[in-house]
């Protein structure tokens, strides 16, 4: 693989834009159409394609969470095992007397980092995402569809009385 092909591949990996990557690797090319055609052709080159695939695999293995890691993280947030850090301002009052004997109060504000458990809204969202993953809401959707079917398949409210609010 040539140095320019390597530069193209590295530039392509930044934003997956072959036209921009080609223009960066070959600065003498000014027309977008030429860069688009040649960039597309460059992506079919076996050496370039192999290099890009190898780099994507490296990036994925180092920086991308796998499904197991995501599920464990969501579970720990849902259980509120994760904590957040917030900055709070603490006030301290000190009173003393000046040289004239007059009392003065000095207030100092000191920022302090405090650890708190994950917010309840975050735990609820994590529970919702886990529920969707494990299709816990599927049964209620099928029950809703079944009750609509019983009320009338035309989609209009039936004249018969029904306990379902959509009927």
Give a structural overview.
The structure is a single chain. With 167 residues, the chain is α+β, with helices and mostly antiparallel strands. The chain is built from seven helices and two strands; from the N terminus they run H-H-H-H-H-E-E-H-H. It has helices spanning 3-15, 18-25, 32-43, 46-63, 67-78, 120-133, 138-151, and strands at 83-97, 103-117. It has a two-stranded antiparallel sheet with strand order 1-2. The N and C termini lie far apart (68 Å).
* Assembly status: single chain
Q: Do you know the CATH topology of one domain?
A: Arc Repressor Mutant, subunit A
Shape: elongated
Overall mean pLDDT stands at 84
CATH architecture assignment of one domain: Orthogonal Bundle
Q: Report on the biggest sheet.
A: 2 strands, antiparallel
N-to-C SSE string, H for helix and E for strand: HHHHHEEHH
List keywords for this structure.
54% helix; Arc Repressor Mutant, subunit A; 2 strands; 167 residues; 7 helices; alpha+beta; elongated; two-stranded antiparallel sheet
Can you lay out the helices and strands and say which pair or pack?
Layout: H1 3-15, H2 18-25, H3 32-43, H4 46-63, H5 67-78, E1 83-97, E2 103-117, H6 120-133, H7 138-151
Antiparallel strand pairs: 1-2
Helix pairs in contact: 1-2, 1-4, 2-3, 5-6
Could you provide a short overview of the structure?
With about 170 residues, the protein is α+β, with helices and mostly antiparallel strands. Helices cover about 55% and strands about 20% of the residues.
